[in-house]
Amino acid sequence: MNTAALNSASLAASELAPEALTLADRVFSEIQNAIVKGELEPGSKMSEAELAARYGVSRGPLREALRRLEGRKLLTRIPHVGVRVISLSYEELIQIYQVREAMEGLAARLAAMNMTAEEVQGLKDLLTQHEKQAEFQEGRAYFQEEGDFDFHYRIVQGSRNEVLTQMLCGELYHRVRLYRYQFSVTEGRPQKAFSEHHRIIEAIESRDGEMAEILMRRHIGSARANIEAHFRELSGSQGLTQAAPHTGGADKTQQE
């Protein structure tokens, strides 16, 4: 978000009462999760009246939440149309994953150099939490909440590289989360992704930056290949510049 937009959003937030801000926080979180999980589909129009009724809030807190989601590039405002959930084209999505493969590979290499023993143990503890998820136990999904609950986010933070952090944990991060969750994958992929996470931690703990980078690049490259295969299956012989398809729910999804 640029400085002007940030100042505008901060001013708008300051005009709300503390109770309204609490409501705005709640609605922001609930709508964001609904977008990430596909309950609000890519490209779908957002009706303020429907959302206010759905989440039980007035227009003030709702509009503040929507402004914040626009700032995260999860919503886009179209003149004379209104607000819609973002929808990336296939090419845009693949390009993002190509960038992730290179940049997160570098982040893993730097994390092997810079993460403390306590931070590495924190990664292990995080995977223990992930393993307890019911969806993961059933082989249906590997969902990670944002920020410190996200394996990839922690590794980027552990790189100690501010430029990488700004690029990977800013607006790109939230768009990636949306599609990380929503794309169906081959059977057994959640467990495979989980195993790959463990191997990346082992390389970081061993201070083997080269291996950590290789494993992370392979990990994200595998996710990209799954997206490509899924799109080919859904689209058949159609062109590859269409919007990335909605996957119809979270029953078979995973998160890379």
List the defining traits of the structure above.
single chain, 256 residues, mainly alpha, three-stranded antiparallel beta sheet, disordered N terminus
Molecular shape: globular
Beta fraction: under 5%
Order of helices and strands: HHEHHEEHHHHHHHH
The chain-level mean pLDDT equals: 79
| Number of helical segments with 4 or more residues | 12
Folded structure, characterized:
- The chain has 256 residues and is mainly alpha-helical.
- The chain has twelve helices and three strands.
- It has helices spanning 3-14, 18-36, 48-55, 59-71, 90-114, 117-131, 134-137, 151-158, 162-168, 171-182, 189-205, 209-235, and strands at residues 45-46, 75-78, 82-85.
- It has a three-stranded antiparallel sheet.
- Helix 2 (18-36) packs across helix 4, helix 5 crosses helix 8 and helix 5 packs parallel to helix 11.
- The protein is globular, with a radius of gyration of 19 Å.
